[in-house]
């Protein structure tokens, strides 16, 4: 990687690997996420979604984007390095020692601040979970991993494709229904529950039972030493009907909740600029017709990318997982897919 010295690999996944690097000019440390670019042009453009979205986001509780470039058939996204690691590892380190209420409330409000910012930009994260939430060395929360994110073309638009991690997936997605930013609210509720109990709210030994628990909103109550307002907060976030589930803005301005979180609410940031859909790639936008007259790789103009690409038409295909979920919900007694699969943390 020109301009960077590779220090060590700090993560690997289906996307590729994450590498800790040091900038040769500034000696500043960053994380480079390496994504293998498919040969298929359409899929290759879709792989750039995360870099495009990250480049547009400037918020104290979102992992900062530095630049992106292509090298050796890899898309390399250079991002802020969060020395505190991810929240999942932090939770696992606690073992049986619960977090203090102050930590829970501070981290939760910071998560919400970052999520509200992207929702105002009509972006759905679609994979909010403790592993995708990071901590700086001073304990500040940063939302990251926007590889599953999408942009809706209007405030009232919905997404359709099955995306997410089972423990954090909202009922409407399991039910194969259109969904919006309320699904992110559900996922944040799952993270809040983890912070309070060090466990997932919905656990089961099979996909069938997990789906049933999620769609019924059936979870163990919080420990009694925690304030009632937290129980109320989770009850609102775990409304199984997304129409009854409040947005983050509504939730945090509720008198009962705001009174609990008042001391931890971050100062207002600068006004959010809307994401104009005409400047975004069709692979990022939720179904919008591609306009060949507009260069989707708008980042070329600001020099954030080192190699250009052309636009492509977006795909609305639904994976086999979604088909299975519909079958499972319509007739639980006939489940055959993943029948012997055991869920793991």
Automatic annotation (TrEMBL):
ATP binds at residue 33. It holds the Pfam family Pkinase. Keywords: ATP-binding, Kinase, Nucleotide-binding, Serine/threonine-protein kinase, Transferase. The keyword NADP does not apply. GO terms for molecular function: ATP binding; protein serine/threonine kinase activity. Residues 4-258 form the Protein kinase domain. Belongs to the protein kinase superfamily. NEK Ser/Thr protein kinase family. NIMA subfamily. PANTHER family: SERINE/THREONINE-PROTEIN KINASE NEK3, SERINE_THREONINE-PROTEIN KINASE NEK3. This is Serine/threonine-protein kinase Nek3-like. The gene is nek3.
């Amino acid at each position: 990687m020109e301009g960077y010295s590779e220090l060590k690999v700090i993560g690997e996944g289906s996307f590729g690997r994450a590498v800790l690097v040091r900038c040769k000019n500034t000696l500043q440390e960053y994380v480079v996420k390496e994504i293998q670019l498919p040969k298929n042009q359409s899929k290759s453009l879709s792989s750039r979604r995360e870099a495009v979205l990250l480049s547009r986001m400037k918020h104290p509780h979102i992992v900062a984007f530095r630049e992106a470039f292509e090298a050796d058939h890899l898309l390399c996204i250079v991002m802020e390095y969060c020395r505190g690691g991810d929240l999942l590892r932090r939770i696992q380190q606690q073992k049986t020692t619960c977090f203090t209420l102050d930590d829970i409330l501070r981290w939760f409000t910071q998560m919400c601040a970052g999520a509200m910012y992207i929702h105002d930009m009509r972006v759905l994260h679609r994979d909010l979970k403790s592993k995708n939430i990071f901590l700086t060395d001073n304990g500040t929360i940063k939302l990251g991993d926007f590889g599953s994110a999408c942009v809706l073309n209007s405030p009232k638009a919905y997404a359709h494709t099955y995306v997410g991690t089972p423990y954090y997936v909202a009922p409407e997605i399991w039910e194969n229904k259109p969904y919006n930013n309320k699904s992110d609210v559900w996922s944040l509720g799952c993270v809040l529950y983890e912070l309070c109990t060090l466990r997932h709210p919905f656990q089961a030994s099979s996909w069938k039972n997990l789906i049933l628990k999620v769609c019924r909103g059936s979870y163990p109550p919080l420990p009694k030493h925690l304030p009632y307002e937290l129980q109320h907060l989770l009850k609102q976030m775990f409304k199984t009907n997304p129409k009854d589930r409040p947005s983050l803005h509504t939730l945090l301005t509720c008198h009962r909740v705001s009174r609990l979180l008042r001391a931890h609410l971050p100062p207002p940031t600068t006004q959010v600029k809307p994401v104009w859909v005409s400047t975004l790639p069709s692979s990022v936008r939720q179904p919008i017709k591609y306009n060949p007259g507009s260069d989707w790789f708008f980042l070329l103009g600001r020099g954030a990318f080192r190699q250009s690409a052309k636009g492509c038409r977006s795909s609305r295909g639904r994976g086999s997982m979604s088909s299975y979920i519909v079958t499972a919900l319509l007739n639980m007694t006939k489940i055959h897919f993943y029948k012997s699969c055991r869920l793991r943390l």
